[in-house]
Automatic annotation (TrEMBL):
Residues 61-319 form the Periplasmic binding protein domain. PROSITE patterns: PROKAR_LIPOPROTEIN, TAT. Signal peptide: none annotated. Coiled coil: none annotated. Keywords: Signal. It comes from Actinoplanes derwentensis. GO terms for molecular function: carbohydrate binding. This is Monosaccharide ABC transporter substrate-binding protein, CUT2 family.
């Protein structure tokens, strides 16, 4: 399916009421809001004596991310812009990245010609845009890669990733604990990943299956979606039709999870528990309310964009992290994945996107 047809399908689903009886769930999808989450922004506190936070040499940061057709991506973009405004010595230059890697590559070529000091990039596909990273680094412009890894370490100065394998581990750990608590020795477990061609999706699934296997469990049915509401609903409908009874389900992404829950509601199914992924505000509210199968979600925070802007500034100014002995910003940063349940959702709610 092309991006344009996916967008049209999504509009039909959201506006046309395609899921009978599930309209409330669908309209509650995480939105591409223009307001940043203050809890995910680190303000520039202090004055001239504030160490790394003190104003220094001006840094021009180029920024590119896929179009915000998804709540998590929307948060990535707004967080990056908001973090840049926290520094008087940062100028952010953003480029429209379109709906595919080719369009983003063209936009990035334009950005490269503007000669920013540092580039922060969330690629459509890390493998396809690896060559751009190499080009920029060869030109002397450090690249901070976000989320979708470049295969070549020479293509980036610093890489910030969520712990995709760890997300799978955390989701499986929760399910294993719940199954053992219920005395279910041979559970029927389903999985709805995101875009299957992405390495991050593959790592999430591997962490999930590896951890389940250690407990003697397996995934009985796996139906991929594409990180959107409509594809989540479609994948869930297929899975529910194929599996008449299920004990647990892991859905990799809370945005597509809105569609997953819509399909579950439409099918009248409630015999299983569900774990989400990423940590959207909507998912946390559903977990708190405890009126759906969604009982937990594992985090993959878009705050990584805020951190990337801060690190780009330090790299541009030739500084390291003030709390580390090393004089330079690290090469790799992997964010931990945490499990949010009804018991701790109130503490995490402010971090939801």
């Amino acid at each position: 399916m092309t991006q344009s047809s996916r967008d049209l399908s999504r509009r039909r689903l959201l506006l046309g009421g395609a899921a009978l009886g599930a309209g409330t769930l669908l309209t509650a999808c995480t939105s591409n809001e223009t307001n940043s989450n203050d809890a995910q922004i680190k303000p520039n506190e202090g004055g001239a004596s504030a160490g790394n936070a003190a104003p220094g040499t001006k840094v021009v940061i180029g920024f590119s991310a896929p179009a915000a057709d998804h709540g998590w991506l929307g948060a990535i973009i707004t967080n990056a812009k908001a973090q840049a405004t926290a520094y008087s010595d940062v100028e952010l230059k953003t480029v429209e990245s379109g709906s595919d890697a080719a369009t983003q590559r063209a936009a990035l070529s334009t950005l490269l010609g503007q000669k920013p000091n540092v580039i922060v990039l969330l690629p459509h596909d890390g493998k396809e845009l690896n060559s751009f990273g190499l080009q920029a680094m060869t030109a002397g412009i450090p690249v901070i890669n976000l989320d979708r890894a470049f295969p070549d370490a020479r293509a980036y100065r610093t890489q910030i990733l969520g712990d995709n394998y760890g997300m799978g581990v955390a989701a499986a750990d929760y399910i294993v604990a719940q199954m053992k608590a219920k005395g279910i020795s041979n559970p029927v477990i389903g999985e709805i990943p995101g875009i299957d061609s992405l390495e991050l999706t593959q790592n999430r699934s591997k962490g999930f299956s590896d951890t389940l296997a250690a407990a003697g469990f397996t995934v009985q049915r796996r139906v991929p979606a594409e990180f959107t509401v409509d594809t989540g609903q479609r994948a869930a409908s297929q899975l529910l039709q194929a599996v008449p009874k299920m004990d647990a389900l892991w859905n990799h992404d809370d945005d597509q999870g809105v569609g997953v829950l819509a399909a579950i509601n439409q099918a009248g199914r409630s015999e299983f528990i569900m774990v989400g992924g990423a940590g959207s505000k909507k998912a946390m509210e559903d977990i708190q309310a405890d009126k759906t199968p969604l009982k937990a979600t594992v985090t993959y925070s878009p705050s990584m964009a805020s951190s990337a802007i801060s690190l780009a500034r330090l790299i541009g100014q030739g500084k390291g992290l003030s709390d580390l002995v090393e004089l330079q910003v690290p090469k790799e940063i992997v964010l931990a994945s945490e499990t949010i349940t009804k018991e701790n959702a109130s503490a995490y709610l402010k971090l939801g996107f």
